[in-house]
Amino acid sequence: MCNCVEGFELAADGTTCMDVDECGYTEFLCQHRCVNTPGSFSCVCPPGYYVFEDERSCEANPVGLFSFGSQCMCSADNHECRDKPFTILYRHMDLSSGRTVPASIFQMQATTRYPGAFYIFKVKSGDGDRVFYMRQTSNVSATLVLSRPVTGPQTLVLDLEMTTVNNVINFRGSSIIRLTIFVSEHPF
Questions:
Q1: Number of other residues whose CB lies within 10 A of the CB of residue 46
Q2: End-to-end CA separation in angstroms for the chain
Q3: How far apart are CA 141 and CA 130, in angstroms?
Q4: Measured between alpha carbons, how far is 135 from 127 in angstroms, rounded to an integer?
Q5: pTM reported for the whole predicted model
Q6: Is there a contact between 182 and 150 (Cβ–Cβ < 8 Å)?
Q7: What is the pLDDT of residues 151-178, one digit of tens each?
Q8: Average pLDDT by consecutive 10-residue portion of the chain (188 residues)?
Q9: 162 - beta bridge partners?
Q10: Given Cys at both, which of 121, 129, 130, 184 links 134, Cβ 3.0 to 4.6 Å?
Q11: Distance between CA atoms of 88 and 46, rounded to whole angstroms?
Q12: Are 90 and 58 in contact (CB under 8 A)?
């Protein structure tokens, strides 16, 4: 009996090893884009970002950053890097057409907390019809609220921004969740 090394699978002929396309199994392997390689895969980030040490997430290139502990920070007065998010996370969700409102549909929360920092949450883009808003639920979290019914089928893409501000160390930076919402054609 033949065996294949990790990242390959035995073909129907029982003797040939074929590459497994890991990227084809799920869209959630990489934060931005997955590229199949022989026996494995790699993640690629958009321009201005690099693949983080987990080899799946994207982080902003460290332009104009300074070190605070083990974290790289952007000085609040450096507009070149301050206006770029440190991270962009990609998330997807389904939403029933005509859902009753108001409805809390998505939660966003700071995972790293800095002494003296406060957090600002907002819908940065994708909500031209003003159907959504962010409601801050604690000093480190907010909920995306659907304020008016939406009908489908349609796909909405929102950029939800969490801005971290720390006046003690003159720091301001943001993270984005790019939320793709698939609105169904029917109310079920």
A1: 10
A2: 49
A3: 21
A4: 15
A5: 0.59
A6: no
A7: 999 999 999 999 888 777 777 778 899 9
A8: 87 90 84 89 81 79 44 54 74 93 94 81 94 94 96 95 81 86 90
A9: 121, 175
A10: 121
A11: 10
A12: no
The Cα 93–Cα 150 span in angstroms is 14
CA distance to 1, 3, 29, 38, 114, per residue, from 14 (Å): 8, 9, 29, 19, 56
DSSP 126: S
Q: For the CA atoms of 166, 169, 170, 174, what is the dihedral angle to 10 degrees?
A: -50
Q: b/e string for 81-118 if b means 16 or more Cβ within 10 A?
A: bbebbbbbbbeeeebbbebeeeeebbebebeeebeebe
Residue type, position 38, single letter = P
Structure tokens at 4: 């294949």
* Closest C-alpha to 115, from 176, 67, 59, 68: 68
Encode 23-41: b = buried (16+ Cβ within 10 Å), e = exposed.
Answer: beeeeeebbbebeeeeeeb
Residue 79 phi/psi, 5-degree rounding, is -70, -25
Kindly state the greatest CA–CA separation across the chain.
66
Number of residues that make up the chain: 188
Contacts within 8 Å (CB) and 24+ apart, 60-64: 60/84, 60/85, 60/86, 60/87
Q: What is the pLDDT of residue 69?
A: 37
